[in-house]
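Data's thin. Show one?
=====
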Amino acid sequence: MNTPKEPTDKTAPDQPTPETAEARVARIYKAPGGPLMGWLEDEARRRNQTAEDMADALGVTYGYVVQLHRGIRTTVDLSRPLVQSCARYLGVPAIVVKLVAGIIDIRDFAFPYETEEQQVERALRCMLDDPKVRASMPVRLDDLPLEAKKAIVLLHAESNEQDVFRVRHLPTILRWLQRAAMEHNESELEAYRSTGVTN
């Protein structure tokens, strides 16, 4: 009598595949109530907490959390104390919570539009804040044509290694935050696209 051979591959029965970082981000951004609620609920699961436990930790009622989850209330309107509580709960700076909650928008990182003339005028004012520079100017700079003003500003900037046109003026932490805002915006757009919602 032929008996079937036992399989030689002793793999474990169907175990769930660990979630990738990309899959987690996608899941959080698709969460009801938005990405902040998805992140908070994810953290509560990680801690083996109920929604009631999470609400207690945040200092709000369970009903408030349910309203945020269902979209009856929005995370854009979170109070400063609640933002701080969320930050403590998630272990991140409050500014990150504001970003994910939608309180801060990608547009908040854009420089206000300035014409070339406005940029040159601003750079000139900055340059003339230095009393030595102001004393060394032989003529009234206001009377010069734009191209001459621009040449003076660029020469001064190059000789003093200054960033008069604000190319490098953001501190490093703000540059990282700006990058995070852009990634947040991309993740949010991807979540909207995958659900068929368009702006």
Q: What stands out?
A: Residues 52 and 62 are 5 Å apart (CA to CA). The longest helix spans residues 172-195. The radius of gyration is 27 Å.
